[in-house]
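Quick one, probably user error.
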């Protein structure tokens, strides 16, 4: 069951515009760093009703760095 957040309409509008800008900009100099992390370390930081995703039975944390141009 998903929870709906009570977000004011003006904030939702700003978020929609921001997401649209992100999806239409050019992403440059993209770098990914993936780290295998024990699930026990991550579980206590998860929001309610969220579960970890596993790849080949292991948990990973990803750090993504990039620059963008509109």
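Nope, works fine. Designed sequence:
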């Amino acid at each position: 069951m998903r929870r709906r957040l009570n977000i004011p309409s003006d904030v939702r509008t700003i978020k929609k515009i921001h997401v649209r800008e992100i999806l239409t900009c050019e992403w440059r100099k993209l770098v990914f760093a993936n780290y295998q992390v024990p699930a026990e370390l991550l579980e206590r930081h998860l929001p309610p009703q969220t579960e970890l995703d596993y790849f080949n039975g292991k948990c990973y944390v990803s750090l993504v760095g990039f620059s963008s141009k509109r």
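Residues 11 and 63 are 26 Å apart (CA to CA).
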